[in-house]
From TrEMBL:
Binds 2 magnesium ions per subunit. It catalyses: DNA(n) + a 2'-deoxyribonucleoside 5'-triphosphate = DNA(n+1) + diphosphate. Its cofactor is Mg(2+). GO terms for biological process: DNA repair; DNA-templated DNA replication; error-prone translesion synthesis; SOS response. Its main location: cytoplasm. The gene is dinB. Pfam families: IMS, IMS_C, IMS_HHH. The record marks 21 as: Substrate discrimination. This is DNA polymerase IV. GO terms for cellular component: cytosol.
């Protein structure tokens, strides 16, 4: 699989939910499948506009976003018009991004219905195309949400690629393909260029992406400022922006997953994997000075079926022992015993430690205060002397027992030698 990934460079996916608002509504009410559906303001208000339209409404009746509702009704008298349910859309969006995070922790939501995923080091999960297919199939089967996916060496090309085939498309766009595929397109088709920018570019004779790519940077900088330089680079397939998991704070999660070297069926092995993951997640939370109140585990079976389960706790957590404890509980509750290929732990709804409000009662206040002082002291020791200075009691007892065994073996061996000499 590793041979299918570049030696230098990145592999970025752009995952775009198709007609997201309508897809959420159809997922909730499957009887809408096969019908022209739009989400609009108030169906009784003729002044309303279309907020979203599914592909039947778009392709068969020419209905588009921002079209006046009266016009949409005229084009399609049998049109199904639904009021927006933003709580539903937010809930579905969270589930989509939680699913994507099981493939790579380097995930950047770009909006409620699209995001970037860096899978450069995910070759153990398959080729880039296979991973994209797993994502597309998994979201459709588990959430009933269709997505288009672009595969490319950077964010810009991945975004452009996902737009080329909708709905349910998967498109690979390499930098060498840019002149053939992107340059003939009109400049307004390029991601990052709106009506006003397109109008300015056309005023200097730039009508296609190819013409933008060949325009001198100085001319573009005079016209559009530093944005002009960036757009010229994008038109040539250049984009150095990393996928940034911290870009959108409200979607922020901190998680870690690992693909196992072989399919595992032993519970004790899975528990040890969770222990390591818990420490990894905790360390990242501490570095970023954040806490969470919801723990989630991900179990991926040998047949690639993926299960995510979460639990909301009364108090915010950050320590590895708490993360590990609840991750193990979730594993024991929801693992069906089948061979496991991947395990992951994610802290959801992460927020700054200073902003968290702990729900203390009269019995826990004093105990929590002691814990806080102790944990701060432990962190100072770790920073001064290294991670190994503080270890779980179980590990120390194991080491003590091992040492006793070694001493006993050496003593027995010495006694044997003495016995042999006396003979």
């Amino acid at each position: 699989m590793k041979s299918m990934y570049p030696k230098n460079g990145r592999v970025i996916l752009h995952v775009d939910c198709n007609a997201f608002f309508c897809s959420c509504e159809i997922a909730r009410d499957p009887s809408l499948e096969g019908k022209a559906v739009v989400v609009a303001g108030d169906p009784k208000e003729r002044k309303g506009i279309v907020l979203a339209a599914n592909y039947i409404a778009k392709n068969d009746f020419g209905i588009y976003t921002t079209m006046p509702l009266w016009e949409a009704k005229k084009k399609c008298p049998q049109l199904v018009i639904l009021k927006p349910d933003f709580d539903l859309y937010r809930e579905m969006s969270t589930k989509v991004f939680q699913f994507l995070a099981t493939f790579s922790p380097i995930l950047e939501p770009a909006s409620i219905d699209e995001g970037y995923l860096d899978i450069t080091n995910c070759y153990s999960s398959g080729t880039p195309l296979q991973i994209a297919q797993q994502i597309q199939k998994g979201l459709l089967e588990t959430l009933k949400i269709p997505v288009s996916i672009g595969i490319a060496p950077n964010k810009f090309l991945a975004k452009m690629a996902s737009d080329l085939k909708k709905p349910l498309g998967i498109t690979i766009l390499r930098k060498r393909d840019v002149p053939k595929i992107l340059w003939p397109l009109p400049v307004q088709a390029m991601h990052g260029i709106g009506e006003k920018t397109a109008k300015k570019l056309k005023s200097i004779g730039v009508f296609t992406i190819g013409e933008l790519a060949k325009t001198e940077k100085g001319v573009l900088k005079d016209l559009l400022g530093i944005t002009g330089v960036y757009l010229q680079e994008r038109a040539n397939g250049i984009d150095h922006r990393p996928v940034d998991p911290e870009a959108v704070l409200k979607f922020k999660t901190i998680g870690h997953s690992t693909t196992l070297s072989h399919n595992v069926t032993e519970e004790h092995t899975l528990i040890e994997v969770l222990r390591k993951l818990a420490y990894s997640v905790s360390n990242r939370m501490k570095r970023k000075r954040v806490v969470s109140s919801t723990i989630q585990i991900t179990i991926r079976y040998a047949d690639f079926q993926t299960v995510t389960r979460s639990k909301k706790l009364l108090n915010p957590f950050q320590e590895p022992e708490e993360i590990f404890e609840y991750a193990v509980k979730l594993l024991k509750q929801h693992w069906n015993g089948d061979p496991v290929r991947l395990l992951g732990i994610t802290a959801l709804d992460v927020l700054d430690k200073k902003e968290s409000i702990k729900q203390l009662d009269l019995f826990s206040y004093e105990e929590d205060a002691k814990d806080e002082a102790l944990l701060n002291a432990i962190e100072q020791l770790k920073r001064k002397f290294g991670e190994g200075i503080i270890q779980p009691v179980s590990e120390l007892l194991n080491k003590e027992n091992n040492l006793k065994e070694k001493i006993q073996l050496r003593y027995d061996a010495k006694q044997k030698r003495r016995g042999g000499e006396s003979m």
